[in-house]
Amino acid sequence: MHAVHAAYTYAEQVELLKKLNRGLSVRRLSEEYAVGVSTIYDLSKQKDKLLEFCIESDERRLLKSRKTLHRAVKLPPFWPAVPQLWFAQAEAQFSLRAITSQQTKFNYVISSLSWEYAAEVRDLILSPPATQPYDTQRTMRTAASEQRRLQQLLSAEDLGDRKPTQLLRHMQQLLGSKIRSVDDALFRELFLQRLPCSVRMILASSTETMNVQTLAEIADRILEATPTTVLTVNTVADDDFRHLRQEVDKLKKRIVRIQSTKTQRKANKDHDNTDSQGVCWYHQCYGSKAKNCKAPCSYAGNSLTRH
Fold first, then answer.
1. Which domain, by its residues, includes 33?
2. Structural domain contains residue 269
3. Domain named DUF7041: which ranges (predicted)?
C-alpha cells in the first residue's frame, strides 16, 4: 500500500505530473496522492504552465546563486615571493565558485595587485589580449617575479638573524623550479658567501665533498656553539673589508685618471717643443713684432730684426 498525502504544493503537483508522463496510471497516482481522478486530469491540462513556472524558478535560483558566489570571491594580496602558490590558491577559489571565464579571472587578479606589481604588467592591463587574458597575465606575472627573485638571490640576500638551513631554504625558494638547472657547485658557493667568515673558514675543508644541505646543517651547529659576540665581530670585519675593498677600487681609478692626464700633457708639451724648435723666445712670443732676437733663431725675416 503506497503512502498517501495531499498534493497541495507546486512541487508535489509537478512531481505527480512527471510520474504521469513516465506512464504511471491515473488510478495509482490518485491513491498515492489521495486526490480524485478528476483532479489529476485537471492538473494534466495545466501541465505546461506548471512546468514552465518551475523551470523559471530554478533558473532564477541558479542565477541568484551564481551572483552570490561571484560576489563572495576575494583574493588575497599578491605574493611576489611565491606567485605559483598564489595563483594556485586563486584557481581553487575560482573552481569553488564555478568561475571559468578568462576575462572574469583576469579582472579578479588585476584587482588584487598593488600598484608596484601592476606597473610591471602595465601594458597587459591597459591592452589585454583578446584571447586567454588570464593565462597570459599569469605567465607574465610569474616571469617577472622569477626575475626579481633571481636578482634578490644574486645581490641582496644575506644570513641576517636566520639559521643557515633557513637561509638555504629561502634561497631554494627564490630559485623555484630553476634550481634544477643551476650548477650545484655554483649554488653552493653562493650559499657559502652569505655565511660569516669564521664559519666559512671551518667549512673550507669540507666544501668540495659535502652537498649544500649537509653544509647548512653543520653551519647551524657551528653558530649554535659560537658566542654571539664573536659572530658580531666577524660580521663587522666582513663589512669593513668590503668597504676597504671599495675604497681601494676608487683609489685605483683615480690613479689611472691622473696617469692618463699626465701622459696627455707630456704629449702636448713635446708637440709644442717640436713646432717651436729653432725659434727664439722673442719670436715665439711676439712673432714679426719682436724687437729683439736671440741666436740661433730660424724665424723667417730674422735679418730685419735687431739683435
1. 1-69
2. no
3. 75-154
Domain boundary among 94, 128, 152: 152
pTM of the model: 0.35
Tens place of pLDDT for every residue, the chain, 307 residues? 344 444 456 677 777 777 877 778 888 878 887 778 887 777 777 666 665 655 555 555 555 555 555 556 788 888 776 777 888 888 888 888 888 888 888 888 888 888 887 887 788 888 888 888 888 877 776 665 566 666 666 665 667 778 888 888 877 777 766 667 667 777 787 788 888 888 888 777 766 777 888 888 888 888 887 655 445 545 545 565 566 667 667 766 766 676 666 566 655 555 555 455 678 877 787 777 888 888 778 777 666 544 4
Residue 186 domain flag: yes
Yes or no: say if 48 and 20 are a contact pair by the CB < 8 Å rule. no
Q: Which three cell numbers stand for residue 224?
A: 649554535
Same domain as 65, residue 1? yes
Instruction: Compute φ and ψ for 269, nearest 5 degrees.
Output: -65, -40
Q: Which of 26, 52, 21 is nearest to 39 (CA)?
A: 26
Together in a domain, 10 and 65: yes
**Cα 227 from Cα 229, distance rounded (Å):** 5
Q: Which of 68, 76, 58, 69 is nearest to 96 (CA)?
A: 69
CA–CA separation, 213 and 168 (whole Å): 8
Instruction: Clarify whether residues 208 and 186 are in a common domain.
Output: yes
For 25-31, the CB contacts below 8 A with 24+ separation are 28/2, 31/2, 31/4
What's the length of the chain? 307
Please give the tally of structural domains in the chain: 3
Q: What is the dihedral of CA 53, 56, 62, 68, to 10 degrees?
A: -100
Contact 292, 306 (CB under 8 A): yes
Can you tell me whether residue 297 is helix, strand or coil?
coil
Q: Which residues contact 99 (CB under 8 A, 6 or more apart)?
A: 69, 70, 73, 105, 108
